[in-house]
Amino acid sequence: MTIRKCNTKKGTSYVVDLYSSGRGSKRIRRSFKRKIDAQNFLDNYMAEKQNFKKSGQAVNLLEEVLYKDEAQFWIETMKNHFSVGHLKRVKGILAEQLERFGNYTLDRMDAAFLTSYQRELKSRRQSNSTINRKTEVITAIFNNSVRHRRIPYTPAIGFRKLPAGRVEMAFWEKEDITSFLQAMHIRYPKGSVNRWRFVAYLTALNTGLRAGELWGLKPEDLSSNGETLFIRRQLNRITKEFDLLKGKRNAKSGRLSRHVPCNPNLKAELLEIINIDNETIFANSEGNPIDHDNYKRVFQKDLKAWGGNPIRFHDLRHSAITQMIASGIDIKTVQAIAGHEDIKTTMNYVHLVGDSIKEVARNFSLSYEPDKPANLKLISGEFG
Fold it and tell me: Closest by alpha carbon to 204, among 323, 316, 109?
C-alpha cells in the first residue's frame, strides 16, 4: 500500500497502488499529478474502509466489486427461494447482461447507466414490462449485496422503472361461458372417458383457479360436506412436482392457500369423476397428473370445436373472477377466492365490468342447460 513516484515523457505522476483485501484480491491503482492528491485519496480510502468495519457495514467499495461476482452471489443466495421457472428466466436475463457488462465495477452502474440501458432496450422495441424485468434483476442483485453487507449502498439510487401500462385482460361474458360449457357437455358427455375435461372447465370457471392449482387438486381437497375445495398446492409445470401454497411465508410463489366455493352442480360432477386410485382429481389415461403444456393443445381444439370467442386457458380464471364481481360478490371475498395477496390485483378486474357491479346475487354458479341445444360451429362427429 504505497505511493510511487513515476517519471515519464509526459512528466511526473504519483501512483497509489494497493489491494482491497490483501494480495490475491482486487488491485486498485490511481494516478495523480500531485503527491498530496495521491496521499489524500489513500487516506480517504483507508478512513472509509475503517468506518465500514466499525459500523458493521460492508468492507468493499463499489469500485472494488464486479457485477458478475455479485450476480453469482445473488443466484447462490436466492436459488432455493425461486421457482424453477423463475430461476430459468433469471438465468436467461443474466446470460445476456454478463456478456455485456459482467466485468463492470458497480460504481459504473448508477442510475444514469440503468436509464441508458432502458433507452437501449426500448430502441430494440422491447416492451416496458420486459425492460422492467431486466432492470429489476440488476436492482435485486444490488439490494441483495447491500443486505449481506457486501457493499455499503445500492448504486441504483434515483433510478425509476418504466410505467407498466394497463394490460387488458381477455375474458368471457356469462353468455360465452354458458355456451362453451354447453358445447363441452356435448363434446364430453357423461360416462365418456374424457368427461373430466368438461369438469375441469366447469371447475376453472366456477373457482378462478390457476392452471397449476387446478391440475394439483387431489380427492381429499373436496371438503367432507362438498361445499368447498381446499387449494393448498399447485402442480409445477416444469418439475412436474407439487409446490405447497403457504401464503406470504412461501418464498417461491407468495400465493395463499385458501378455500374456494364448490356449488352443488360442481360437487356432483367432481364426485362422478374422482378415482381414488389416482393421485389427482384430473388425470390422464395412465392416471398421472395433467401436463398443462400438452393440455393447452387440447383446449385449442375444444375452442375450435365450439366456434366462439377464443381466449387463453389462463383467461378462464379472468372470466371467473370478472363474473364473480359482476354478480355482486364483494371485493374482499373475491380477493380471498382468487388468492390475490394484494387487493389492488383484484381491483384490476373492476374496470372490466363497470356499471354492471350491482348487488344482484349472493349465489354464484355457472353451468349449462342440458336440454337446450348449443349455438355451435361444430357439434357433431367424433368426440372424446
Answer: 316
